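User:
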Amino acid sequence: MVEPENDDRQAGHFFQLPPINPDHWNDDLRAQRLKDTRLGAGWGALRRTLVRMGWLLVVVAVVSSFYYVYDVRPERERLARTNPRLYHVYDAQDRADDRTAVVDLAGLGILDATHTAHALPALALMGQVWAVQYDNAGLDTAVISELITRRAHQRGVTQIVVVGHSMGGIIALEVATHLYEDTDLRLRAVMLDCTPVNLHAVRSRSRDAGEDMLRWMGWLPGARESRTLRVLVETVARKDRFVTHSADGVPSIDTHELYTVVTEVFREKIRSSKAASNSLIESQFNAIVASGAQKNLEALTAEFEDKPLPAFVFLRPKIGEHDPVVDVDYSQRVLFEQTGKPPGRLLVVRMPQTAHANPIQQPEVYNPAIETTVLPFLERIQQLGDASPAAGATEFRDDNPQ
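Assistant: Predicted structure:
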């Protein structure tokens, strides 16, 4: 058998594989090859950015879950169970005054007026003294009015004096309107302590702080309930205390003052069981923004059925500039326009050595003013008012207790 002439072996040629380069089979090259051929290898920076964003979203989701489960939800559930309460502070000093109750309402950011009412024993010269604790979930003046009415019927009370401190005076006017128009109780008087009758009466520094707080609560989910975010919200609202500006307008932070502010927020707003919630503060500030006070003043100076018109008392510092929060001179002018003209009944008491609605700090000024100036005025008005609803019309008075 003859083999083909073109057989390579006969020709002396053999097929050979190319020589193997051991460097082509090392682990680094294999890893590089896998990297070059995997899905998305050509995306480069975009792929890396997407991966990082994915991990970031996972972290945010985990943190948000812990934030809601351990911070927002417990506070939201607690607030859902709260409701306004009415505490008895003093008995009437004279048993003949048992049929009168003086109801004290605290100002912005204060949950319970009990401490303030305790500082004013002179109120017991008018009758029983009650203090309102707000509902931390929000503000409903109709509910507060119903609470006062039920207690009054239980205690045999027939007439009410409503007292409001600072922005609590806005709430007091609204509660008083409910009592005047919707109940069988007689509204004897409304006492306003450094109350801003509208947003224009709030000095710009305090107004800006309140607006900043509302803005942050609108931007940050859960800020109304979160204790963690409240630290941020309350701190930002006080930024004027730690943010300073150089001569060329460059802002800087005073770290010592920032530490003081944060410590204050933790002590007064986070750790304290008596701190008002952001939901309540928002409701209180919105009541001022809505300028409902002037509408309530109009209702309280209009004759309603056969009820006597209530008297009005405005407590303020002797020098208006001494109140750093409210322009009391402006509020006084508005009150005079609304209540001081016939058939209005208005007494303005200028108290020396006081600042903004501080009966707890200055009880030695407030109590004599109530005893020697406010009480005689209300007694005279009541004697005149018993004749007919409009018989108690009186001119504007501006008394100084000293």
